[in-house]
Structures are given as structure tokens and as C-alpha cells.
Amino acid sequence: MTVIGLSAGAAGRTGNVDRMVQWVLERWGEPSQFVKLTDLSYSGCRGCAELCRGAGICPLKDDLEPLWERIEAASAVVIGSPVRFDRLATQVVALVERFFGFRHRPSALVGKPFLLVTSGARPTRGLDTQLYEYLKYYDAPIRAVVHFASGQPPCSGCREHPLCRLGADPRPAGSGTPKSGRVDDDPLVLARLRAAAEKFK
């Protein structure tokens, strides 16, 4: 079986979210696929339930179309999201909204384990609840959640976005805001990612 990793990491570089998803996939012990959601063009659910009812899959023709069979066939799904305004990224929300097509064929996701990895400026609670509000309709469990509090780099206006090694929000750090870091340098988060991957073996 194959594990699929879906990352809404920052466009134009391999940031912390991408590295977290890739790190888990490399240690999962099964064949894996990595998909960068921010490289794709798609929208959220458009409410055309009469179209997905027959096929039991979302009928919209965009960059998500090839993913549905891959998600259904996967033994597990890793979702990576940056945290913006204490919420999951819109790319993740749009993706899971489109799972609605599977509601007409619920066995596609029933029991399929999900792992959520996130990165944001500070510790954030309730991200698993946000994802659960979508997955609960499919009886798809969230087996683990790992968050990296990256802080914010004081580099506003550096214009080096494609070359940035930090992979974090490039806004100026406010008073008392920790400087941004890389998940690769946080042994505690890496240990949590390793433990999460072990749960699925």
C-alpha cells in the first residue's frame, strides 16, 4: 500500500510544512507519494451534489481530479498545513470540502487514518478539531497531530522569498516574538514526527 502526503506548504520554496510531510513519508516504511497542493489550481466544493452523487467522486475538472483515486487507494494520508489566523490553510479546507463526493460512496475513506502536521508562528490549539469537522462524516480517524511553532523571522522586505531557508511567515518579528526556525533543528518535533510515523507501521 502507498501513503500519500498532501502539503499546503509555502509556494516557491520547500518550507517547514513540506519538510515535515516529507520527513514523515521517508520514515513511514511504505511506498509514498508527495503532492504539493500550492502548486495545483483548484477550488473548494461548489455544491453540485447532483453530479457527484452518481459517480461517488467529485466531478470537477481541475488539478485535484487525479488525486481522488490515489487518496482512496492510499493506506493512510498525511496532510500538512501552515497555520494562518489560527486556522488551517485554505488549500487544505478546499481539499477536504471536495471529499463530499465520497459521501455517496463512504467506504472510500472509512477507517483510513490521517496524520496532520502543521507549522505556524506560535503554538496553536484546535487544529485537529478543524480537520475532524470534515472527516467525521467519513469515519476517518485522525491518528496524530504534530505542530511546529516556528516563530517569525525579522526579514520584512528582504525580497529573497525563493531562497529563504526558514520556510516561515516573512513578516517582521514583533516585540517578544521568537525568531523563526527550521523544523530540522528541533529534535522534539522530529521525535514527535517519528513517533507519529511509527503508529502507522
Description:
The chain has a single domain, classed as Rossmann fold (3-Layer(aba) Sandwich). Helix content is 27%, strand content 18%. It has six helices and six strands; from the N terminus they run E-H-E-H-H-E-E-H-E-H-E-H. Strand 3 and strand 4 form a beta hairpin. Helix 1 packs across helix 6. About 5% of the residues have low confidence.
Question: CATH topology, what is it called?
Answer: Rossmann fold
Whole-number average pLDDT?
85
CATH architecture: 3-Layer(aba) Sandwich
Strand content: 15-25%
For this structure, the quaternary state is: single chain
- Structural class by sheet pairing and helices: alpha/beta
Rg over CA atoms: 17 Å
Q: Mind telling me the CATH class?
A: Alpha Beta
Q: How many DSSP-defined strands?
A: 6
How is the main sheet built? 6 strands, mixed
The ordered H/E elements are EHEHHEEHEHEH
Number of domains: 1
Q: CATH H level: which superfamily?
A: Flavodoxin domain
Ends apart, CA distance between termini:
11 Å
SSE topology:
Blueprint: E1 3-7, H1 16-27, E2 32-36, H2 49-55, H3 67-73, E3 76-84, E4 87-88, H4 90-97, E5 114-120, H5 127-135, E6 142-149, H6 187-198
Parallel strand pairs: 1-2, 1-3, 3-5, 5-6
Antiparallel strand pairs: 3-4
Helix pairs in contact: 1-6
Quick summary:
By secondary structure, the protein is an alpha/beta fold.
Output the keywords.
single chain; 201 residues; alpha/beta; Rossmann fold; 6 strands; 27% helix
